[in-house]
Amino acid sequence: MLIKTLLNKCYPVKGFIYGKVSLHETKITVKVKERKRSQGVCCRCKKTAPTYDHLKERYFRFIPLWGYIVLLTCKPRRVSCPKHGVTVEHIPWAKGKSPICEPFRMFLSHWAKYLSWQEVARQFRVSWKNVFESVEHVVEYGLKSRNMDNINTIGIDEIQYLRGHKYLTLVFQIDSGCKRLLFIGQNRSAKTLLRFFINFGKERSEQLKAICSDLWKPYLKVVKRKAPEAIHILDRFHVMKYLNDAVDQTRRAETAQLKQDGYEPILEKSRWCLLKNKRNQKTSQLARLRELVQYNLKTVRCYLLKEAFQHFWTYKTRWGAERFLKTWTTRAMRSRLPEMKKVAKRLRRHQVLLLNYFSVKERLSNGIVEGFNLKAKLTMRKSFGFRTFKSIEVALYHTLGKLPEPPVAHRFY
Ligand SMILES: [Zn+2]
Hints:
Blueprint: H1 2-10, E1 16-24, E2 27-34, E3 40-41, E4 48-49, E5 51-54, E6 58-65, E7 68-74, E8 77-81, E9 85-88, H2 102-111, H3 117-123, H4 128-145, E10 153-161, E11 166-174, E12 179-186, H5 190-200, H6 202-207, E13 210-213, H7 217-226, E14 231-234, H8 236-261, H9 271-275, H10 283-293, H11 298-309, H12 318-333, H13 338-349, H14 351-355, H15 367-382, H16 389-400
Parallel strand pairs: 2-7, 10-13, 13-14
Antiparallel strand pairs: 1-2, 3-4, 5-8, 6-7, 8-9, 10-11, 11-12
Helix pairs in contact: 2-4, 3-4, 4-16, 5-7, 8-11, 8-13, 12-13, 15-16
Residues 42, 44-45, 47, 81, 83-84 line the site of zinc ion (ZN).
């Protein structure tokens, strides 16, 4: 009975022994019996107590083997605990009423990092809920045991979810040595971010050296109050987003205007060649761009202003960048492009935050916030089973939180 040997080797359970193994069609069933003269453990106080009686047989899913479903089965004892009366014994290989063994939970949650939850459920023949609970369990452990000390730099980002106007607030650690998701909160209000700082603690907040965020007012307010010592930076990803939005809105308005005036629709299907970074464009998009630039369109002027701004990030010194910003905003203000004027005004108003980018010794690599933003969106998109905030929260912590995992004697994957 090789399976028994294997189980004893990689998953011995104290107080129990593996018994008869039987194969029936696609299922391997392994009987688990209590050791002779052993006593059950009260599920509430975890203390041994004399046996009262045995319950009906229960089945627990173990990691499948060679296409066979593996089940552990046992008749749990009821014990008469001196403190709690008659209770069901504590089953060491599964939590509470869960029909999934601990090692299988770890296994499912491991694959849930690489595949969508539906895919994991399908591949290993369990329900979506089984996968969700497995991941939730591992995440809960991770959140309890993670180390939150020595965090110097954080980034705050907001992200839309469930296709409505619902937002999540995400806080990341973006130090060069460690990048991970620290916090997820529902909404993007001051209260949401306050909750992060309260959990994070006063001492740790005071240690923060730099904080990146966009210009969302509630965030600015909370950061000022909770981490006044930290340098607050308006990050590159969000600035470029403001500029891109301006280009996009101008393009939309102009497309409609051209159509109304009866001109040929030259701006149609030009969205991505105007928004994407030049370096990431396909040859066809670049050709389209060259064609567009020949027209004296508002959209094109807007695009050129946006591209000109890229130069801002290459400055080595704060004063150089400041001079550039002055020239650029003046140009934008005279451009007769209302959307660009709006951005320019905004950047002027928050000039200090923008220039703080140049005050941090270790220049924040511009891709971090953007990278997390993309990964978070991808995680949410990958599973259409996420209907609730709770499941999104668990999924994001799982994939981006770099959480410690429960210790195991044997790694099954
Ligand atoms: Zn008890």
